[in-house]
Write a structure and sequence with these properties.
Layout: H1 11-21, E1 26-30, E2 33-36, H2 37-54, E3 61-65, H3 70-82, E4 85-88, H4 95-105, E5 109-113, E6 115-116, E7 119-120, H5 121-128, E8 137-141, E9 151-152, H6 153-157, H7 165-174, E10 180-185, E11 195-199, H8 200-214, E12 221-224, H9 231-243, E13 247-250, H10 255-265, E14 269-272, H11 274-281, E15 296-300, H12 306-315, E16 320-326, E17 331-335, H13 342-347, E18 351-352, E19 357-361, E20 374-379, H14 391-397, E21 404-412, E22 418-423, E23 428-430, E24 433-435, H15 437-444, E25 450-460, E26 464-473, H16 481-488, E27 500-503, H17 517-533
Parallel strand pairs: 1-13, 3-4, 3-5, 4-10, 5-8, 8-9, 12-13, 14-15, 15-16, 26-27
Antiparallel strand pairs: 1-2, 6-7, 10-11, 16-17, 17-18, 19-20, 20-21, 21-22, 23-24, 25-26
Helix pairs in contact: 1-2, 1-3, 2-3, 4-5, 8-9, 10-11
Amino acid sequence: MGFTDGALRLLSDYMSQAVRERPDHVAFLYGEQTITYREFAQQAEKLACYLLKLGVQKGDRLAYLMTPRPEFFYLYMAASRIGAIIVGIGTRQSNREIEYVLNNSEAIAVFTLHSMYEYDYQERFEKILPRCPSVKHICIVGGPAKLENALSFDEILQGDYSEYLPALLEREAQVSTDDGLIIVYTSGSTGVPKGALMSHKNIIHMSLVEIGMCEAGSDDIWINHLPVNHVSGATEVGATAIVANSTQVLEPFNPVRTLELIQQHKVTILGQVPTMFAMEFALPDYDKYDLSSLRRVVISGAAAPMEILRKMKETMCDYCYNCLGLTEVSGLITYTEKGADLETLNLTVGKVAPDFEMKLVDKNRQEVPPGEVGEIAYRGTSVIKEYFKLPEATAAAFDNEGWFYSGDLGFIDEDGNLRMVGRSKEMYITNGENIYPAEVEDAIMRYTGVMLCAVVGVPHEISGHVGRAYIVPLPGHQIDTDDLKEFLKEYLATYKIPREYVFREALPMTLLGKIEKKLLRQEVEAELQAKNQA
């Protein structure tokens, strides 16, 4: 494959490599469409020429609001070839959040879906764009353009821009592997969203490591049903499958459709967060699907419950990996070992990949000994260098030696695996004792009948803070609180066991399927304010 070929300096070079070696190999399966690497490269080239016609300069930002679909990848590779930077917007973000991303990134163009579910994005952008002076162009994906001066993506691809091919080759030669390619905005759970600027080199290196760890190749078929404004859909699957010259099945997540697509297209590599697996396993006819084609299954993004891990191994694939992924490292950075047992998958996220460095530090950024909790820091080629236009945030999170300080807390166990205990800002103190929510959540998820849980600290007059557990039971299960508390004594010191329990049918989730604790903490704050006012 020539994965380490020094001539492959840009992400789009891996697309071009596939065209040279296997032009008719399938790049994407999307609905009824089958798109080869040759067709992929042709469409990306046409879009790149169109962008040059618009006057897009090296380093200009191009925002996109899309689901996993071919048009996203055409834009991704077109930007790669001309040195532009694409900027992700979430399909469920509010108007104010979208406005922030556009203005912070100073995007000059927007590529947006026509509509999705209850959202009419053209109507929304009609209200948003007057407050975003940098945006000069808008393109509508998946439908006709209704906005003034907007074009549809289909209209663009019908044009002839061949006169710009010499300019494209000239521009491409000017793009460096260290140049930015994509800005992914953090969730903003701890403040203002920060735009992580990833270079070609960052993304390529992370992808090469992932390919090596998962033993992926060009004959693999990945399913990409993850948000493409997030590293999960844009780099961990999207870019990695291109670097491997593999095939991607594209479709937004739906538990039934996921199983249907795995069966239909013989998907070999599946990556999801625990919530996605839980939704699939809860389907009454789950066992009817043929999932025997799967050879690698990756779970990441949150604690992995024992029941879910057991069913993954029994019904999907024995080679399951629990991984840690971060925006600031361009994707995945830790992996459990191939064939890891259930206990290891449940309690740890494995070891940092050999190509990276990791250390755990105290509040003074001095290393702590193995077994002691510390903040996790990373260094390596895939670690970004900056948050876009946020020099103070960059200086706070990155040091001069290239270390990124994540804000995540963990410790190294006796087997050398990393165990997560939460984020430093999520920790709360009960009677002088530090409580790490992730540790408590791991214990609760071991209890039969728990599908989801989140633990937050709530103010207490005597103890300072105590734990409140928000729990979603599995369908058909009722959970006895006293029995749960008794169960937790086997895994947790008494002071760590939550004092309050809230049972719900659902919890607020991010688009990726992570529990949005920020909203739960806001709920606690609102309760406290109401109590004080009373």
